[in-house]
Structure formats: C-alpha cells, structure tokens
Design brief:
Layout: E1 2-7, H1 16-25, E2 32-36, H2 42-53, E3 59-65, H3 67-74, E4 84-89, H4 110-114, E5 117-126, E6 129-131, E7 134-138, H5 139-150, H6 159-172, E8 177-182, E9 186-198, E10 202-203, E11 207-208, E12 220-226, H7 230-241, H8 245-251, E13 253-257, E14 259-264, E15 270-274, E16 277-282, E17 284-298
Parallel strand pairs: 1-2, 1-3, 3-4, 4-17
Antiparallel strand pairs: 5-6, 5-17, 7-9, 7-15, 8-9, 8-14, 9-12, 10-11, 12-13, 14-17, 15-16
C-alpha cells in the first residue's frame, strides 16, 4: 500500500508539516509521499492528479489539516466508494471526529492511523459538492463568512477572530423565510435562524445540535432553529454548547432524516456552509446521506 499525505501547512502549529515529515521518516518500511497544499482548493486538484499517477495501486489518503481540508480532499475523488481516507487533524475544530468521543485524541497519533482499521461511514452529498460532517445555513454561515474577514487578527490571538465573528453574527444575521422539504414528503415553511443537516453532531467546534447521532446508520440529524432575535438566540447557543439537548429541543425542531431540500420563499439565492466552507449564491440547495459510502480509517478499537 502507498500512503499519501495531503498536508495543509497553514493549519495548526507552524511546525506541523515539518514535525509530520520527521515522524514519517522514522517509520520503518512505510511507502509514502507527502504533498503540501499551495492555495485554497489545491487539495482537490492534488487528489485528482494522484489517482491517475498511481492508477492501479492501493492508496490510502491522509487529510492532514482541518474540516475544510478534508472536504476539499474528498471532492477530488472520481469515486468516493473506492477511496480509503484517514483524518489526521490539526485544524481548530475537526468536528466529525467528535463522534468518537474520548477516542478522538487517538486520531492525533499518526502511527495509530497508519496501523488502523477501515470502517464504512456515511457522508453528505449535496447538489454543489460533498461534506463529511455538516450542511447548514443561517447564523453559522454568517459566522464563517465573518471569521474569514477577521482571520488576519489571529496574529494577535487565535481567539480574536472567533469572538468577533460570533458577536457580529448575533446582530447582523438575517432571518429569511424558507421552504424546506424533508425526505421528499414533509413540507415545512417559516423563518429560521439556523438549519443544520449533520452526519456528525457538532458544528463550529462546540454546537452540539443532535443528541443521538450515528455515523453509519444512513440518517442525518437535523436541527431547525426558528427565527430568534440576538438576545433570545444567545441562550440557545449556550445550550448547544453545554449539550443541553432538553433545552435545545424545547426551542428548536430536532429530528432524523435522509435528505433535505431548501429554497428561500422569495426565490433569492443564499449561502450554505459545507464543513466550514461557504458556497454562495445558489437558489436551491439539496443534500442527502450516502449510506456507508466512504472507507474511513480509524485507530483500532475506537468507540463512538
């Protein structure tokens, strides 16, 4: 087997890429190649090229970055069902790995992944790309957009862009009226502050939006938060952070489903957040769970 490491050198600590190369060099008998990303979206281009360069060989791809790096890497495969993918996290959230609870820390040991086992997990297919963890719109989409705007302030402190983005999002987020179709039959209409369709159960690092999630049951957890002004939305966001599902479920609609379609009632385009990447100006969004569609590498014996 050939091990392919796709490294985002801008994720995590400044020495991450060099530290990884030093660890790999000390693993005897490992057949591997390391590729650094150069710009946003280069992960997708790299995977497409590597598949054809190594055509016919057994490959395992390692995402060495955060949730966005993983999403872009997955977008490069000709057929995800034939891919074998590992997640060696160094981003700030790495939300999908939280379904493994206390075993999440084991994914930070590269040797555990190299010697790991392959399981089948679900992923999200949308009409404009794939996501491993979440597909969402509303407050969090505004938050990610603003975070990108303030990202340069992280040179002073890593938390400054996040705090500013959250604070501003509470006051600038617009509550649009949507038409939502669930599982091709249930029709919902209304104004929502947030709509989340998730293969995992965490969004943005600390928003636990669904209590009973399973990464390979063929269902997504869905959380729809009705229109709330900033002072009412803040207590709910705190409940999501505390994993207070009883509080969340009294104020939001939470359920399981297989697919979702979303349009604005006025027909205007809007943005969606796919694993931390905002895709803008689409008039109709749809997503569905691809059941056990991805071969995912985990340390041996991890538990959900």
């Amino acid at each position: 087997m050939t091990h392919i490491f796709i490294v985002n050198p801008h994720a995590g600590q400044k020495t991450f890429a060099d530290d990884l190369r030093a660890k790999l060099a000390n693993i005897e008998g490992l057949n591997y190649f390391v590729f650094n990303t150069r710009y946003a979206g280069y992960e997708t281009e790299l995977v497409r090229k590597i598949q054809h360069i190594f055509e016919g060989e057994k490959l395992r791809f390692y995402c060495c970055g955060g949730s966005g790096t993983m999403r872009k890497m997955l977008s490069g495969f000709d057929n995800l069902e034939e891919a074998e993918v590992a997640f060696f996290p160094c981003g700030l959230t790495n939300d999908f790995l939280k379904v493994f609870d206390n075993d999440e820390k084991r994914f930070h040991q590269i040797e555990e992944l190299i010697n790991g086992e392959v399981i089948k997990v679900d992923y999200i297919q949308t009409n404009y790309g794939v996501a491993l963890n979440t597909f969402s719109t509303g407050f969090d989409a505004d938050y990610v957009t603003l975070f990108d705007k303030y990202r340069m302030l992280s040179v002073f402190n890593e938390q400054i862009p996040y705090s500013l983005a959250v604070l501003c999002s509470l006051f600038v987020s617009r509550h649009e009226a949507y038409e939502v179709c669930i599982d091709d039959e249930k029709q919902l209409e209304g104004s929502f502050s947030e709509i989340i369709f998730g293969n995992g159960n965490v969004l943005g690092g600390n928003m636990y939006f669904y209590r009973d999630i399973n990464y390979n049951d063929g269902y997504a957890g869905c959380c729809m938060i009705p229109n709330m002004r900033s002072l009412k939305l803040l207590p709910l966001l705190l409940a999501l952070k505390k994993q207070d599902y009883d509080e969340t479920e009294t104020k939001a609609s939470c359920f399981k489903c297989k697919n979702i379609r979303i349009v604005r009632k006025d027909g205007a385009p809007f943005s969606m957040n796919l694993d931390g990447e905002i895709i803008h100006n689409i008039k109709e969004w749809s997503a569905h769970i691809v059941h056990e569609g991805l071969h995912f590498v985990v340390p041996k014996g991890v538990k959900v």
